[in-house]
Design brief:
alpha+beta; 3-stranded antiparallel sheet; globular
Length: about 500
């Protein structure tokens, strides 16, 4: 742990007792004398278990018990939302569609999660109208409205607008805003990030060097948090430096992972090293185990990315043995990686037409599963079957249950041969932020820990469950897994 992060954790720990008083927090709690008030009675223990479809998930907090009155749980904008509206302890610091449905039913659709600003299909949706909130209810999607930057290389038009708000106009700037719908990323394991958002927004200070990681991560998360407060919480004033410091220190101390499996038991039993507490101690630095030879230590890529369940290989417990086999498949089952812009056309990699890899080729950070250096690419999840020509991408998409989303047509780009390319997509990805043709459809590699508590999957919620995720990869990258292997790999992912 860096000196800066230790200091931040000490500041947070000293300020926990002050969080319960919102007026004190707004003045920058933690800068004065220590409080003599008793600790709040509703503190949530670190590693508190919550039920998931396959077991339980828990979150380790480096600062000890979690104060539900802390800044992360406070409404810092003009509406009643907080960070916790979309990042819940019970869902591995993410958001599941099943939970959204439960909250909608219990609140008659009035919970802050469903505010029309972005928790509905369109800003015009009426409170309590389930049809107008179908994307968050069925796919856990939040609407993101982005404008194109100046100097954009391409033209974009709306090919299909199922909800009538594919484009809106920013009232203050007059800019055209394009609506895309994305899953909230988990607010945990942030110290392992190489890119912040799905489309790499707010990764302004690069997370690619151990010497600058702590400072740059803090800067990027500050910018992300300030934007979230301004947009999702409709903040009218900039959060104070004290609020941002407390918020980021809290978030950086969170590590969520599956804790128990219904059939296999505790994921730390019989020599296994699953769970959030072990995750918090995982060695990491930018470029660690990079699959493309960029580890700064010079170490070569080790395809055994996950080693959590090695002790369960050959176990007499059938569920434990299945999870161990799934881990081995993740590490060793060959993939034919083709037609992935950002990889197969990447000059830094030699533009290989085919990369024979494994799941760990992209998810290379040991026992975490993120990519350890900044890298975004397009595996096809934003494509449409009707306009797709690659048989492998079509097969992968057919394994999913993609939601009905606005469809955009992007023109004005050319391929490596200089030929005109037309993109048909539900999410231009990084290109919407950069305006660059080379970034169309590119999305970052997400974390893999705590998956079981936050279905559905992929940035657009197109995989309803982990079974669909596994089938997509098996078809898309010609893994050709047999039925037992599909189950084993699914069981492993659920145990993360």
């Amino acid at each position: 742990m860096t000196i800066e992060r230790q200091r931040a954790f000490l500041v947070l720990a000293a300020g926990l007792l002050c969080f319960a008083a919102a007026t004190v927090v707004l003045q920058g709690c933690g800068g004065g004398a220590a409080s003599t008030a008793p600790p709040p009675s509703d503190l949530i223990p670190s590693l508190e278990p919550y039920t998931t479809p396959s077991g339980t998930v828990s979150t380790f907090s480096a600062t000890g018990s979690i104060d539900p009155n802390g800044v992360f749980f406070q409404a810092l904008g003009t509406n009643t939302r907080s960070c916790a509206s979309c990042h819940q302890l019970s869902q591995g610091m993410g958001l599941s569609a099943a939970n959204a449905q439960s909250v909608f039913a219990s609140s008659n659709g009035t919970d802050p999660l469903f505010l029309a600003v972005d928790g509905a299909n369109c800003p015009s949706a009426a409170s309590g109208d389930s049809a107008g909130h179908s994307l968050v209810l069925n796919n856990g999607l939040i609407r993101i409205a982005e404008s194109l930057p100046s100097g954009t290389q391409f033209n974009i038009s709306v090919a299909q607008d199922p909800y009538g708000c594919a484009t809106t106009t920013n009232a203050s700037s007059g800019q055209t805003m394009y609506s895309v719908y994305r899953r909230p990323l988990p607010a945990s394991s942030l110290t392992f990030l190489s890119d912040v958002m799905w489309d790499a927004r707010f990764s302004v200070s690069p997370l690619n060097s151990a010497s600058t990681l702590s400072a740059n991560l803090g800067s990027d998360l500050d910018a992300q948090a300030a934007n979230a407060i301004a947009t999702h919480e409709q903040g009218s004033t900039t959060p104070t430096a004290a609020q941002l410091s407390q918020l980021i220190s809290f978030e950086e101390g969170l590590y969520a992972a599956e804790a128990t499996d219904t059939q296999a038991g505790a994921l730390t039993a019989n020599g296994a090293t699953g769970g959030a507490a072990a995750l918090a101690t995982q060695t990491y630095y930018p470029g660690i185990n990079d699959a493309f030879g960029q580890d700064p230590t010079g170490a070569t890529f080790n395809p055994a990315v996950f080693t959590l369940f090695e002790a369960w290989e050959g176990s007499s417990n059938a569920a434990q043995a299945s999870i161990a086999r799934g881990e081995d498949l993740f590490n060793s089952a060959p993939m034919q990686i083709t037609d992935v812009p950002g990889l197969n056309d990447n000059p830094a990699l030699g533009s290989p037409a085919v990369i024979v890899g494994t799941c760990g080729t992209c998810h290379d950070a040991p026992n975490v599963g993120m990519h350890s250096l900044p890298l975004t690419f397009d595996i096809g999840t934003s494509h449409l079957v009707a306009s797709e020509t690659d048989a492998n991408i079509i097969a992968g998409l057919q394994a999913l249950t993609a939601p009905s989303l606005p469809i955009y047509q992007i023109t004005g780009c050319t391929n490596a041969s200089g030929n005109a390319v037309v993109y048909v997509t539900t999410d231009p990805g990084v290109a919407l932020a950069t305006g660059q043709c080379a970034d169309v459809n590119h999305i970052k590699v997400p974390a893999l820990r705590g998956l079981a508590g936050r279905a559905p999957y992929f940035h657009n919620g197109s995989a309803a469950n982990l079974g669909q995720v596994v089938q997509f990869y098996s078809s898309r990258f010609q893994m050709n897994l047999n039925p037992q292997q599909l189950v084993d790999l699914q069981n492993f992912l659920a145990a993360l």
